[in-house]
Amino acid sequence: MYTRRQFGQMSLAALSLPRVLRAAPESKVGGVRLGVQTYSFRELPRPEGGDAVDVIVKAMTDCGLTECELWSPQIEPRLGFKPGAPRPAPDSPEAQKARAELRDWRLKTPLEHFSGIKKKFAAAGLRIFAFNYSFSPSFTDEEIDRGFEIATALGADFITASTTLEVARRLVPFAEKHKMIVAMHGHSKVDDPNEFATPESFAAAMALSKYFKVNLDIGHFTAGNFDAVAYVREHHADITNIHLKDRKKSQGDNTVWGQGDTPIREVLQLIKTNGWPIPADIEYEYKGLGTPVEEVKKCFAYARQALA
User: Fold this and answer.
1) CA-to-CA distance for 218 and 122, rounded, in angstroms?
2) How many CA atoms lie within 13 A of 39 on its CB side?
3) Model pTM?
4) Any idea what the CATH number is for the domain that residue 21 is in?
5) Which tens digit of pLDDT belongs to each residue from 21-65?
6) What DSSP character marks residue 195?
7) Containing domain of residue 123, as a range?
């Protein structure tokens, strides 16, 4: 992802990955790339029957952030689910129908549609450096393959995925076919060995393929009672990007930044001091008093201060 971090300059470059990693637009503070996981803008209204591309472009522009990790549901149809309405049970006919329709949309939507999204971001001076496409057991092989094609059309350097170790095994031939990194996003389900949450689970994934890396969410990592600073120091060459959020230890809640236990400042300073090309992405998840744009601005200000 990386020049995504100019990944080519990292020890990952020793793997001689065929994909040439590209430079990203400037959204740096103290040499550290600050961006946003567009999930942060999930509560912003989107046009009826349309995607959230224009909404995200405006939100990023308003926040002064120039690169993002694009959350796939924001460029996909809602398929009849109303915002805030109860979702049907996963095994219900309604949910199964919606799932089939989403798969059909992914497979049949021309790739030019996605390259058009890339152009829309670029016209605003923004860049999609990563595509968050979370593979699940329900994905067909064709749907997995299509995710890599969509990521390429969007201009993403890599894919981030909230998935499981079992599904990751299925991804190996596709990542190798497309020569594209898949970064496993961790949560805090430390009691499930199939989930990505512990250092051991990340290591298990990376043992499967040289194209598997880590999208470290330092908030979730802290909630699982792991040391984010130590992990970044030891595994920086295998981290494509980090998610910035604040959570309490021992499965604690998301908090306003600075009120939890997550070492946001320490991690950012570590990246800055060592000059590691690891992007740090704001992920707004706590319950703020302002709009998502207002809260992301607050998080951005906190990160800038932490890097001062």
Assistant:
1) 29
2) 21
3) 0.89
4) 3.20.20.150
5) 344 446 799 999 999 999 999 999 999 888 999 999 999 999 999
6) B
7) 2-306
